[in-house]
Amino acid sequence: MGPANVVTRFGNWCSEFRASLHSKQAFLRFLETTESRMSENEERNKWSNKDLDISPPEDWTWAWWDYAAFWWSYGFSVGVWSLGSSMMSLGLNYWQAIICVFLGHTLGAIGVVLHSRSAARYHFGFPVESRVAWGMIGAYFAVIVRVMVGTIWNGLSIIQGGYFMAILIRCIFGKRFYEMHSPIPTSSGITAQELIGMLIYFTLTLPILWIRPSKVKVIFSIKSVVLPPVALGLFIFCMIQGKVKPPGSFVGYKTLHGSTLGWGMMSAINSCMGKTASLIVNQPDLARYAKTPSAPVLSQLTALIVGNTFCATLGIFATSAIQNSWGKLTWNPWDLCNLILTHEWNAGARTGIALVAMGFMLSVFASNLGANAIPWGADTSILLPRFINLRRGVYISYVIAICICPWHILKNSATFLRFLGGYSVFLGPLVGISITDYFVVRRGNIFVPDLYSSDRKGRYWGIYGISWRAVVAYLIAVILPIPGFTTLFGQKFPGSDAWLKIYYLGWLIGCVLSSIVYFLLSKVGDFCAEEGKMGFEEVADNQLLEGLSQGVGSGSDIEAGKIAIGR
Fold first, then answer.
1. Paired strand residues for 463
2. Which residues pair with 563 in a beta bridge?
């Protein structure tokens, strides 16, 4: 879109806004989202808007290399670098931490691929997919759980971007900025310099949020090329500084042994799963744009594992090298950059760290856009589809994210890992239920028009709009690890050590247990009897998206359409 078109559209928007101020009804019409792609319906469907509709063929733009670029570039992120190095601070040696990272991301990759299938085949997002297993009303619960986690991660990403912006400013202006007085109390967990960096980063990235998800893949392609040299450059510098000691060795830190080591590694794997848990849940919000159903399979399975394990390994060895050389364990890259500037204050170091800071800012923004902001916008559109669409939701998420003061979570490595492991307990069951429902219970057969219907006899209505099977399976899976989670905050009770070990398996237990319980409950009554008798994805092979050219869900009776699902 050229500058002239932007000015014209802005002028039209201003004219429409002035006209909307004449009456309450006009103002509400101005705030309404576009219901369907053609907006030809006389009565608005409360279950739909343009972003909740099935994605039209012109949006099926993501090929296998786009998904590979997304996950390869996601691996070179601040969180992944920090994940591996933070494990070292808890008593794991380098090869134990690498094993945990590899196993955790392997499990995560399997979950991502499996949860991508329904969206790649039917081209709907996570909010609409949730209606299948949870019911038309019950889907709100699944969405709210994901939105809460996404809000925190969105905030974490923005403050991380702010940290690197503050580092970039330090590289440019030197001690005048870095050593200026900070009137903010130390107990607040953030300095004036970091707050300034966050606000500048927040402001500069706002315009980029306007890009539509189907077009945003170019950012991940750029990141996949830019970030590896940045991470490797930082790694090489750290290794040169620490060449006096064996790679991967730590000074002054005791390593774990015996059963303590085994459960420590399980805890690390659970934390690693926490890093990808939210991505597994909201993966349909990206998989819906797949060119073919097979596009998100091998590309994600390989790129996610390789990219994440490689970058985490760089972080582990870089952390070790700097600790051996300078005597300080810096588990995150922003503290590492500041430490380098403190030790090596010269033109070369300032230039190099400035490039690293800009690279990591790109990494933070791109990862947050694909993993949190876009899914957050897609998820919240189901809560109030008349007034919230994906684009508005993205901007709302950005504003809310800085209001939750996320910097407290990044206070130290233990808090960071506790956060990662804690919320994964609540996301694992969502994945287990969705995957089992699609692959086993319904055998990949989804009747799309019923996902946008208020008919209480519809396939996805359940009881009062809620699937009791999903509710029971979720509660059983979530309750089990909760006692162990409370022990991390000092709660002691009989058998607390055993409960803690159960919590160390939190994501796996939640995912597997919810899957088993949901499958068993599906045998009660004649639940999904019709789908169970069909071949796998038979509906997707034969069903036509009715009225796709007008937007699925745009009316109660949809005329016969023209385009086959997943073709």
1. 466
2. 545
Q: Find the largest Cα–Cα distance for the chain.
A: 75
User: For residues 147 and 377, what is the distance between their CA atoms, to the nearest angstrom?
Assistant: 9
Give 277-317 as a DSSP string.
HHHHHHTHHHHTTBSSTTTTSHHHHHHHHHHHHHHHHHHHH
Find tokens 């012109």 and name the residue.
58
Instruction: Please provide residue 45's backbone torsions phi and psi, each rounded to the nearest 5 degrees.
Output: -90, 120
Q: Please classify residue 464 by burial: count the beta carbons closer than 10 Å to its beta carbon, then call 0-12 exposed, 13-18 middle and 19+ buried.
A: exposed
Share above pLDDT 70 across residues of the chain, in percent, rounded to a whole number: 83
Contact between residue 474 and residue 429 where contact means Cβ atoms under 8 Å apart: yes
Other CB atoms within 10 A of residue 229 CB: 12
Q: How many residues are present in the chain?
A: 567
Degrees (nearest 5) of the Cα angle 15, 19, 21? 125
For the purposes of burial, counting CB atoms within 10 Å of the CB of 302, is it exposed (0-12), middle (13-18) or buried (19 or more)?
middle
What does the CA dihedral 535, 540, 542, 546 come to, rounded to 10 degrees? 150
Structure tokens at 248: 């991967």
* Residue with tokens 């890009």, as numbered in its chain: 211
DSSP 478-511: HHTTHHHHHHTTT---TTHHHHHHHHHTHHHHHH
Q: What is the pLDDT of residue 559?
A: 35
Token digits for 536? 């796998």
Question: In angstroms, rounded to a whole number, what is the distance separating the alpha carbons of residues 391 and 210?
Answer: 7
pLDDT at res. 9? 61
CA distance 153 to 379: 15
Residue 23 gets which letter from DSSP? -
How many whole angstroms separate alpha carbon 32 and alpha carbon 192? 39
Residue 38 has pLDDT above 50, yes or no: no
The answer on pLDDT for 146 being more than 70 is yes
What are the backbone dihedrals phi and psi of residue 213, each rounded to the nearest 5 degrees, phi first? -55, -35
SS3 563: strand
CB atoms within 10 A of CB 259: 9
Q: How far is CA 94 from CA 255, 335, 417, in A?
A: 10, 20, 17
Q: What is the pTM for the complete model shown?
A: 0.83
Q: What is the pLDDT of residue 260?
A: 80
Model pLDDT for residues 436-460, shown as the tens digit of each residue: 999 999 999 999 989 988 888 889 9
Specify the DSSP element, H or E, that contains 118. Answer: helix 94-122
Task: Identify which of 68, 69, 74, 65 has the alpha carbon closest to the alpha carbon of residue 311.
Answer: 74
Element (H, E) at 25: helix 24-31
Whole-angstrom Cα distance, residue 62 to residue 370?
A: 13
Amino acid present at 363: S
Per-residue pLDDT of 165-180, as tens digits, reads: 999 999 999 888 888 8
**Please, what is the Cα angle at 527 between 522 and 532, to 5 degrees?**
90
CB 435 within 8 A of CB 515: yes
**Relative orientation angle of helices 78-88 and 139-173, to the nearest 10 degrees:** 90
